[in-house]
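User: Can you predict the 3D structure for this chain?
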Amino acid sequence: EKWCSFDKLEMTVMEALDLLNTFVDHGDATVDLPNIYHAFQTAERIREKHPDKDWLQLTGLIHDIGKIMGLYGQEQVR
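Assistant: Here is the predicted structure, written as structure tokens:
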């Protein structure tokens, strides 16, 4: 209930993606890079395999954007 009320913050998608530069997903023990790297890698891999599906590339870019809630106190699952 706390995290589904949509009253924590308001920002653009670009601002949220920029915040991924400061977020490391501690739920993935094999990665110690900011989550933005994963977002770009996912979008790029989709672009290589599906160059005609820009909507799918965008989905790959933003699929983990909700993880920034970890910067505002949401617990990360390990």
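The two ends are 21 Å apart (CA to CA). Helices lie at 13-19, 35-49, 54-62.
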